Amino acid sequence: MPPRPKKFIDPFVLAGIDYIDYKDPKLLAQYITYYRSIQSRFHTGTSLKNQKQLASAIKKARQMALLPYVRYE
Amino acid sequence: MQKYELMAIIANSLDAKAAEKHAKDLEGRIEKEFSGKVTFSDFWGERGFAYIIKKQKWGYYNVTQFNMDPEQAQGLRHELNLDNDLVRFMITKVDAKSPLPRKYADMKKEYEAQEKAKEDDKKPADDKKTSAKKEKLTTVKVEEPKATEAPKNELDKKLDAIVDEASDI
Q1: pLDDT, tens digit, for every residue of B74-96?
Q2: Domain extents in chain B
Q3: Which of B50, B98, B111 shows the shortest C-beta gap to A68?
Q4: Could you tell me which CATH class the domain A11-63 is placed in?
């Protein structure tokens, strides 16, 4: 989970990512919480457009067991 | 024609070679039976699941992109459901303009390189921190006697004054 930026700058715009791919679980794992729920826009600073892409990508990755639905242990 | 992407998980009851062959057979069937055109294929190999599926902890992942008529895609979905060697699969629509996805092996290498770079950064950083701490400790030690001397002098003066007063009496 990346820390909340001082200014609300979209991290995907900073990194130059146009399309958020569900096949990149390491990238997506940065945007889920300790209990593996999707991190809110308030904390990550993603734009609305990218947050929608991110959410759908995380949901697809979960279906294919690339990311967990919940944290066990 | 619509561009699709198929991600399939092949059961770990097969060997790595057999799994790769199975993935290639799938591509062949897409081209022959469903009149599709495969534009991209990537066999990931073994990968652990994030959770247990059908009492299995890992499987072989395979990703293929192809162009196909939407009517045929439903038939493909039906056929894949009958395949016992597939643990799970997902067919997603892809924008025709979007570039080809990165290969999994390249992605893995990139992340390994990043982790290595991070570890290399950490090692000298730790040394700096410890050295900085040592410097601080040494400076504090030098300052401490100075700080303690000043109040002592004041105390001494006060004591002397009191002693003088006492001697006057």
Answers
A1: 888 998 999 898 999 999 999 88
A2: 2-101, 103-169
A3: B50
A4: few secondary structures
Which chain B residues are closer than 8 Å to A66 by Cβ?
A: 50
Q: How confident is the model at residue B1 (pLDDT cuts 50, 70, 90)?
A: confident
Inter-residue long-range contacts of B45-52, CB under 8 Å, 24+ positions, other chains counted: B45/B16, B45/B104, B46/B12, B46/B16, B49/A65, B50/A62, B50/A65, B50/A66, B50/A67, B50/A68, B50/A69, B51/A65, B51/A68, B51/A69
Q: Is A60 an interface residue toward B (CB < 8 Å)? A: yes
What is the fold, at CATH topology level, of the domain defined by B2-101? Alpha-Beta Plaits (3.30.70)
Q: Which residue has the tokens 């247990």?
A: B52
What is the model's pLDDT at position A64? Answer: 92
pTM, rounded to two decimals: 0.72
**Mean per-residue pLDDT for B137-159?**
65
